[in-house]
Amino acid sequence: MTDRTDIFAGDDPFALAQSWLQEAEASEINDPNAIALATVDADGLPNVRMVLLKEIEANAFVFYTNYEGTKGQELATSGKAAFVMHWKSLHRQIRVRGTVEKEDGPQADAYYRSRSLKSRLGAWASRQSTPLKSRAALMAEVAKVTAQHGTNPDRPPYWGGFRIIPSEIEFWADGNFRLHDRFRWTRLAPDAEWSIVRLSP
């Protein structure tokens, strides 16, 4: 597509997303890898929250969470998710929709080990999304799991990654007078060819 030049150029949307993220890492003040992740509950009512994207793979996007929390349960039930990354410093965003699968093997173990000790212990201490009596109760649980698991805790069995395998990716850049540039990549299956169209702003 001759119209797709400059910041939109390239044949691989994952490489393009990675290049945009690398640019944002140089200009965005906090958490350039933050995504607004959308899921739906059993009634189809959406939930959205900020999480940190940890990997852009050759064919997917990966983040980590507690499988027993609201998002983990909704992802496991629906098998689908969407997210948006927005960078004010670049005046750009990426929107993604697709199916999800768990990443709870060696890759999740390696990422868990890369986290700070307090974060690893926090994953054991927090029963994500459930009612909590007080912060003091949470800190007491942290002390308890610290005594139980020591300074090199294994990854909790209820904590790991989700891989989002997109069927649709949209790259958006701000334009003068609200005449934005938008390109949508779609495919019918993970191994299918991408179709790319320019969208009206």
TrEMBL record:
Residues in Pyridoxine 5'-phosphate oxidase dimerisation C-terminal domain copies:
159-201
Q: In which pathway does it act?
A: Cofactor metabolism; pyridoxal 5'-phosphate salvage; pyridoxal 5'-phosphate from pyridoxamine 5'-phosphate: step 1/1; Cofactor metabolism; pyridoxal 5'-phosphate salvage; pyridoxal 5'-phosphate from pyridoxine 5'-phosphate: step 1/1
In Swiss-Prot or TrEMBL terms, this protein is called Pyridoxine/pyridoxamine 5'-phosphate oxidase
User: Which purpose does this protein serve, as stated in its record?
Assistant: Catalyzes the oxidation of either pyridoxine 5'-phosphate (PNP) or pyridoxamine 5'-phosphate (PMP) into pyridoxal 5'-phosphate (PLP).
Binding residues for substrate = 54, 111, 115, 119, 178-180
The alphabetized list of GO BP terms reads: pyridoxine biosynthetic process
SUPFAM superfamilies in alphabetical order? FMN-binding split barrel
Do you know which Gene3D superfamilies this protein is assigned to?
Electron Transport, Fmn-binding Protein, Chain A (2.30.110.10)
Please provide the record's keywords in A-Z order.
Flavoprotein, FMN, Oxidoreductase, Pyridoxine biosynthesis
Q: Which family does the record assign?
A: Belongs to the pyridoxamine 5'-phosphate oxidase family.
Alphabetical list of HAMAP family matching this protein: PdxH
Output the InterPro entries linked to this UniProt entry. Answer: Pyridox_Oxase, Pyridox_Oxase_CS, Pyridox_Oxase_N, Pyridoxamine_oxidase_dimer_C, Split_barrel_FMN-bd
One of the entry's Gene Ontology molecular-function terms is: pyridoxamine phosphate oxidase activity
- Note the subunit structure: Homodimer.
- Provide the reaction this enzyme catalyses: pyridoxamine 5'-phosphate + O2 + H2O = pyridoxal 5'-phosphate + H2O2 + NH4(+); pyridoxine 5'-phosphate + O2 = pyridoxal 5'-phosphate + H2O2
Using the record's annotation, list all stretches that form the Pyridoxamine 5'-phosphate oxidase N-terminal domain: 22-148
Paste the cofactor note: Binds 1 FMN per subunit.
- Record-listed FMN binding positions: 49-54, 64-65, 71, 93, 128-129, 172, 182
What cofactor does this protein call for?
FMN
| EC number annotated for this UniProt entry | 1.4.3.5
